[in-house]
Structure formats: C-alpha cells, structure tokens
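Morning. Coffee machine broken again, so started the prediction first thing and wrote up yesterday's gels while waiting. Chain of 192 residues, entered below exactly as on the submission form.
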Amino acid sequence: MNWRKRWRWWRARRRHHPPDEIHRVGELAEQRLAKLARAAGRPNGWHVFESVRIPDHEQGGKREIDLVIVGGNTLLVVEQKHWSGTFEINGDHEFIQHRKNGTTHNHSTVHERISRKARMLASMYHSLAPNETPPAVEVVLAFTNRNLTWPEEVQALEGHVLDEGEFIAMLEQEQPGELNQALYDAVAGFGT
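Came back before lunch.
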C-alpha cells in the first residue's frame, strides 16, 4: 500500500473513531517516556525503539510493544502504563484499576501479556540468528503517573515493576556492555 493510500485510510479512520481522552493521555505518556529513555540511556549505550510491532504466529495479527530497548546483549521489553488511582491483582492475575473518578476498569492480564511478547521477541531473534548468544530478556512494567498507588504484591511479579523515576535511573546507572549488532539489527527490522 503506497503512502498516499495509507494516509487517506488513516485520516478516514480518525474521523470515524477519534481517540478518547484517556487514550490520548496514555499515548502522550508513552512518547514522553521514550524521549526520557533515549536521553537517559544514550550515554551508556542503550538504544530505544518505540511502538515495535511483532507478528503473532499463534494468535494471528501483530502485537505492539511500547518500548524495546537494546543494550549490549540485553533486551528490555517495556510496557508503560499511565494509570491513576489504585489497582489490585486478582486471583486470575488480572489488573483491576480503581480510578479516582469512582470507575473501575479491568486491564486483564497486563503482566502476562508483556511477558508473552518478550518471549515471542526472543524466539524471533533466535530464529533470525540461531548461532548468536541468546540475549538476556528483561520485562519492565513502568508506571508513569505519580497519582497511582500500587499494591505490595506487584513486587512479586517477574521482571521489573518501576515508576518512571526508577526506570530512568536504571537506564542511567546500568552499563549494558558492548552492543550485539545482530540483536540491534533484528529489533530495528521490526515495524514501528
């Protein structure tokens, strides 16, 4: 599909389905986090890719990852959430948000979904570069809204659960080592 046709399609879709305020705020928070991550991580050799789309061979279609950050032979697979209020994690591992306006929203299994995307990405890299050393893959759940109170059990989740400041500090402090160019090229090859 050429760019003009894609542009017309996108414009037509925006007219019929304008984004709501919550999604607009979330998109702006994702963009802000990507800019902060680039600035914080660049001196140490972290490379930030935002809105990475990977094929999902099991369920069909594509899945989007908010941020994939490559440094050394490490992949940080980041899911950013700009929730406010509080949330709980129920017995089915669903994240239930209680917003300050009194509404409740079930975000389903947020952590399990991003962990699955991380496994898919690592598997795809292995199939593209089977002779390369497998990368260290770390899942990061980054909460960027200061007006969010977390339950204690969130720390028991696999990977990193960080607020925005902790996430940026991690990129500023961790030295990932020499860049695995094959890993960088593989991630750069996915659509954004």
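Strands lie at 47-55, 62-71, 74-81, 85-89, 95-98, 104-106, 136-143, 148-149, 160-163. Going to sketch it on the whiteboard this afternoon.
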